């Protein structure tokens, strides 16, 4: 019997391993990066039940698998070679794999840039055409699909820039010629009102009224209520609140504790220089709110979803209407609840997404409670609709804090708000470093 070649003639690729046809469908036997033994993989397109018949599709699926495994196995931006066959899809996959290795914080976690790059590359990952054929008209066609899907204009511009950056990176790696990037940069980004296909305009983020915050707090757990109060009283960013740990707080000065923001929460951690370190003063009422949450291990997060869920269950049990003997939960009910909760895993801390979702849910509960009360008082539908709170998100608390500081401190309010929020002009950061810290403490005391 003749020996089978490593790869059949219809498979043209520089990928390692060997391709085989089994029942007229393609498989790939390979040792993926991070594995220590070979495996045979059925090359199935996304959503398909069976492996593909098409050799070109088989090679592309294999490249996707190789690049994903390479990205997962290494955090080193200079890690091994990326498989590339000259197509737009292969370039997109290669750039995504590079992004997984390149865009990481000091603690090794991926930045939000990775998710943005994946979304921008998604239309390109299905283009099985030569990269040389992708020019300005092709990019404008991709942009048109985003406009028609009602994406925000600024988001579309960001994604176009990412695609341009992907071809620039490809040129730097000698995967595609430089002129492709030069051609793509001739595209003019969408200006305000310039979209012809329905792209939406960005909504301006404004402050949330303090009355809305207080109404929402009534439907938050003690943990989330503390997060919202500290957020409003300090003007922190959402991630800075979520990443609070006792070990990050310098309590040597009783009047003004200093929260040294860790790299995982500091958006400027990648910049060099001590002026980019974020230090947030915690004074007055903030210390009072935070103190109970410091009674834990120094390296434990102050605000955790698990603790918040326990608090929510205590409140639910207190308001329960069907209780057994002596006011206790029926054993059968308790057994069922324990079975449902078995194996449930909680995140180590809140992130800006889960924090925002918790506030949205509390806002909805507040609106429903208000609606029930107004219906009981025979209010009209128009009155009820007018009284409903709009949904708000945590980042608006930062705007509210800045607005309050500027209003209270008059002419010095702008500088104090800038200092408190960490918005520094990089050209004069060194000059204003000490002044900024004193202004930040003054602003924090005013809020508290």
Could you please describe the fold and organization of this structure?
- With 448 residues, this protein is mainly α.
- It has two domains: 18-184, no CATH class; 210-304 and 347-447, hpI Integrase, Chain A, CATH 1.10.443.
- It has 17 helices and six strands.
- Helix 1 packs parallel to helix 2 and helix 4 runs antiparallel to helix 5.
- The radius of gyration is 28 Å and the shape is globular.
- The termini are far apart.
CATH top level of the largest domain is: Mainly Alpha
Strand content: 5-15%
Q: Work out the number of β strands.
A: 6
The low-pLDDT segments are 1-5, 75-79, 425-436
- CATH fold annotation of the largest domain: hpI Integrase, Chain A
Mean pLDDT: 82
Global morphology: globular
> How much helix, percentage-wise, in residues?
40-55%
Task: Give the tags.
single chain; 448 residues; mainly alpha; hpI Integrase, Chain A; 2 domains; 3-stranded antiparallel sheet; 17 helices; 6 strands; globular; disordered N terminus
